[in-house]
Amino acid sequence: MTTLLFGGRSAPIHVTKFEILFSGGNIIRLPLGLKLNIEQLVFCADSRTSVGALAPILEGSSFPLKKLEIEVWSDEDATNPIVKTAGILKINDISTDTPQAIASITNPVVCILMQTPPEHNIERLVRNWIESQRPVGHKYIFDFYREPPFPAEMEDMLETLNGIPVDDENVIIPMSKDTQLKVSYGPFPEFAPRSKWAVKFSTEAIEH
Question: Which residue from 15, 21, 115, 163 puts its CA 20 to 30 A from 61's CA?
């Protein structure tokens, strides 16, 4: 079937969204010389295995990917150039220390599904964001299955980091004389309307 669909192509095949829905033990036989130019890549498997298997058929102009979705984040993903350069990165689960993993991610837009709300980590996440001086425009969304303990920790954190509450679901924390971190959170928020509860970190320029 794959030979019938893709065989005999002299130019790369453009694919808007390419989904890998198999585990590392599966085998897909593709025509010799096949090259794909892709925009979005979805791995429903270990990302290293999938990238390694796909490397021979991915045309160079595919990178950096517009969007990459991986099933489970591992420490090795932090150094994988295909992962690091994706414009939008979606992670369905993190198997390692959550703040440490997030600290290693440098993509401009990230969405992370959090199955278990990490306790006492909001200040750690915020401090890392400030210390690493995430650029203006960087936006990370944490999507929770239930309300995390963040709100209870927010008051103490704001006092420690000179944060300013904007309203019940938004706070501003200074990063430098020119930038600030905006933390937005709540159930079914505008930035993630399908989420039961979500938190968004975004770096904003300060208007002088």
Answer: 21
pLDDT in tens, 99-152: 888 889 999 999 999 876 655 578 888 999 999 999 999 999 999 888 887 777
pLDDT category at 172 given cuts 50, 70, 90 is: very high
- DSSP label at 134? P
Domain ranges for the chain, please list them: 97-208
Q: What's residue 1's pLDDT?
A: 45
In sequence order, the 6+-apart residues with CB closer than 8 A to the CB of 102 are: 94, 110, 112, 125, 128, 140
Average pLDDT over residues 51-63: 79
Rounded distance, CA 124 to CA 201, Å?
13
Alpha helical stretches, state H, 21-114:
47-54, 81-84, 98-104
User: Hey, which residues does 91 pair with through a beta bridge?
Assistant: 70, 112
Q: Which of 78, 66, 201, 69 is nearest to 140 (CA)?
A: 201
